Amino acid sequence: MLTVALDAVTTAAMLFIIAAGLLIVFGVMKIINFAHAAFLTVGAYAALVGAHLNLPWFLVLPLAFVAGALCGGVTEIVIVRRLYKRPLDAILATWGLGIVLGQLITLMFGREVQFVQAPISGTVHLFGADYSAYRLVMIVAAVILGLLFTGLLNGTRLGLSTKAVIMNEMLAQGLGVDSSRVRLITFALGSGLAALSGALITPLSSVDPNMGVPWLIGAFMLVMVSGGSLLALAGSCAVLGTLQVLVSTFVNPILGGLTIAICAAIVLRIRPEGFARA
Amino acid sequence: MNSRLLTTSLALALAATTLSPAFAADPIKIGVPVGLSGANSVVAPSVVQSAELAVEEINAKGGVLGRKLELEVADDASGAAGAQKAFDALIFQKKVNVLISMETSAARNAGLPIVARGKTPYIYTSFYEGKSCSPYLYVNAWVPDQQVPPIVDYFNKEKKAKNYFLIGSDYAFGRGMLAFTKMYIEKTGGKVVGEEYLPMDGSDWTSIISKLKASGADALITSTAGGAPNVTLTKQLRAAGVSLPYGNLAVDEGTAKGMGADAAGIYLSASYVTGIDTPANKTFLASMAKKFGAELKTPNDLSVPQYEAVYAYKAAVEKAGSTDQDKVLKALAEVSVDGPRGTIKMDKQRHAPLTMYLGQVQPDGSVKVIQSFKDVDPGAQCPGKS
Questions:
Q1: Which chain A residues contact residue B210 at CB under 8 A?
Q2: How far is A123 from chain B (nearest CA, A)?
Q3: Are A204 and B239 inside 8 Å of each other by CB?
Q4: How confident is the model at residue B24 (pLDDT cuts 50, 70, 90)?
Q5: pTM, whole model, 2 decimals?
Q6: Are A225 and A4 in contact (CB under 8 A)?
């Protein structure tokens, strides 16, 4: 029972880490960045490169973040900027970009599965059960990430401008907020977060050109039911992540993989604003 | 001085032409439909390389019945749709005399009707889930009846395992392998305490691992899709501190090497490992290294059968005295080949008894052979057919 509880919490933490970048982009720009999976993969390969260069883990994470943020910044300027008024085309364009990035990675690193050693291995004895140490680290990472972004949004000038753009872009522009700069920074930040999450999950996952794709649909659904709020995202990750673990454990892992998508669809049907305060 | 150099080189060139064997008739064409793109793209280059070596060696010794061998490689994209195109092009446009190839089961099944229309002999060189029968098909790689028993027998005897837990990817090969494993475990007195599957692209094994830990199993056998699922499962097992005897039906030497320390301790069962200590294997490995140098893809359990199958076809054509399809098909069951894996004869319902090796991955990623099982019978794969 305890293991199930730990599984639920760590699963929720991983989902939160992966979906946070997508949520931030969606919150500010009202577009879904389907290249999120590709940026996640970029981060994982950055971690791989870092590992080959024997960089310590605390340097690998910023490296992944910067790699993702750079990719995201270029993407915003070259592609996404032109599509703010056409959110559906933006989905298509970012999805296509994801395929292109996947192929570029294949060309550079090859198609095969690669490996990054975990910085922390083994198990921790916790409340009478042995549990994977790295999964527990995920909880800490999720909490730090959540706090950092809450701080960024509520405690800085950039956060204030961002919130102004989220609430009423026209008005914000009228007050002198450079909304295109806010959008650029937000997109780069979201992409950097995606890459960071990729680097964080590699010790539990494999590194291959399509590694991000299985995570994308879950993250997308979670963002849909969270409606742009970080707190709501934490809530939906906790609820849906727990449900996924329960279904996987007590019914069948194949159905478990579908739980988030199905539950999110049901939640949206009953309550279109999802877990966000209306 | 200059004219002397010219004469010498002319003489040398002349000597070279007369020394190389003269080939009388048209070449014999070998079609190799293989997954150069898609799921098999990682392993396919090694398969093509070993076929190239076999053809080069045979041609250097005068070919087959005085005719040169020639390879026709076609991409089947690792799937059914690509295989239909590749088989069609090879059989009806390139008019190949035989098909020899490692492919996915989907590609093989899609190609067989075309093989039947063209009445072309087809040697399949990939291990697979078994029971594929066609009058034109021969198989020189293992089936579950050959791969699973070494691991289960070893766990039963040496590890005193009674309760087994099975984990797989949800597709035909994964489920087929584990269905046989379950039957074999129960036949030998063990019990299966859990059997769990994740979709092929699944990468989160959390709850399955928790169930494994709660199940009280004393041995674990997995059969996932190759590549990513296998890696994620192994890493998460190790992260969760699972240290049960762990038999992996889908890992190969290359993957084990790449996985590093996480793979250490895994048991695998194969008809070929590079460490087989025979002169034939050493000669083969040296020739591969010489021909391909830095480009060499490590020979493996999928590429070595390909090499031997080319020799099996040569022997069958020589026994038949022609490339006549009916005669060659009959002869394929009667000839035997001495190759890196030992002496192989496809005489058991178009399948071959094989010597299987039980290996354990070492901390440095190499595979140590623990035990070998001589000439394991493929069992009844195509009852009623000789």
A1: 3-4, 7, 249
A2: 6
A3: yes
A4: low
A5: 0.76
A6: no
